[in-house]
Predict the structure of Trehalose 6-phosphate phosphatase.
Amino acid sequence: MTNQNVVVPEATPAITVAAAAKPPVLFPYPPPRGGGASAAAAIRKKHLSQVELGESWTNAWLESMKTSSPIHAKVAASAAAVPIIEREQNEHSAWIVRHPSALSKFEQLMKATKGKQIVMFLDYDGTLSPIVDDPDSAFMSDAMRAAVKEVAGCFPTAIVSGRCRSKLFDFVKLTELYYAGSHGMDIEVRKGTKYTKKKKTVLFQPASEFLPMIKKVHKALSKKTKPIPGAKLENNKFCVSVHFRCVDEKNWRVLLEQVWLVLKEYPMLRITPGRKVLEIRPIIKWDKGSALQFLLDSLGFADSKNVLPVYIGDDLTDEDAFKVLRDRGRGIGILVSEFPKETNASYFLRRPSEVMEFLLRLVEWKRLSLEDGLE
C-alpha cells in the first residue's frame, strides 16, 4: 500500500515509486558471513581472485566509474551542438514528468508543508559548491553562504557530506548549522544551537574503531597511487576518497588495480563510486540516510508527523537519504543533476545556482507566511 504522506510529484507517482525501489549498483565488499580469521581470509581470497582473474568484474567497475561521473564540460558542449534525436527527447521528458523541477513546483511543495516544521538537509560538493578538478578548491560562493545562513535562521539545517567534518566546517564557516561528515559517520550536535534539544554537545561516531585502519589504508594508498598522474587522495577521517577527476581515462584501470591491491588486505572496508571519486569506508550499516534519522532524533523530530525533512544532494551516496524519506513516507528529496538518472528523489534542480534560488525562495516563503499569520 502506497503511503499517502510522502511528497511526490502529482504525475505518474506509481512510476516514480517503482524506479525508487531499484537501488543503484554499488559493488561493495560483502560483509563477513562468519567471525574470526577464517572468515576474513576467505573474503581476502575471494576479492584477490576477482582482481587478478575476473576481467568482467574489473570491466564492470570501470563502467561504474564512467556512469557515475558527470559529463565533462567539453563533451557536454560538443554534444549540445548535435541535434537530439526524438527518442532521447522522449526519455528526458518522461524523466522530468516523474521528477519535476523543485522550482517549477515550488508552490505545490509549499502547500504540502502547511502546518509542518521543515528541517533542511544539504549535501556540499555539487550542491552548495560546484564540482571542481581540485577537491581542496571546492569553495562555496559568498552568496551561497549567505543563502544557507538565512535558511538556517528559518529552519533547522544540517549539512551531510562525504568530507571530514572539520574540513566541511572550514568550507562553510557557519555556526548556525549541524554538521555530519564522512558520509554521516562523524556527527556533531552542539549545545546552544537554536533548535537543539540536547543539553550538551553530542559527538556521534559509529565507525570510531576503524580510525587506525583508515590511517593505514590512506598511507598505503598514498604510495600506490603516487605514480598515477592526476590521482588525488583525501583523508576524510572515517573514509578515504580517491579522486580520479584529473586522471586520464586510460589510467583508470591501473588506478583501480592499485586501490584493490591495498583493500584486499582490509575486508572490513568497502568501496563505492561517486562523482569522479572512489569512496573507501567501513562496512557498517551507516550512511547519509542513517545520519538524517539520527539528526532528526537529536533535534526531537524523529517521531513527529508534523515534521517535513527536505534533503538536497547530487551524488550516489545521497540516494541513501532519499530512500529514507520515501520509506518514512514524509519528506522531499531533491536531486541536483543536469542529466536524467535513476534516483530515489522526487524532484530535481539542475545546478548549485538553482539550489541557491530554491533556498532563497524558501526563506521568502517563510517570511511571507509569518507576515500573513499562516504559521
Notes: The chain is about 40% helix and 15% strand. The two ends are 32 Å apart (CA to CA). Residues 1-53, 72-77 have pLDDT under 50 and may be disordered. The first strand starts at residue 117 and ends at 122.
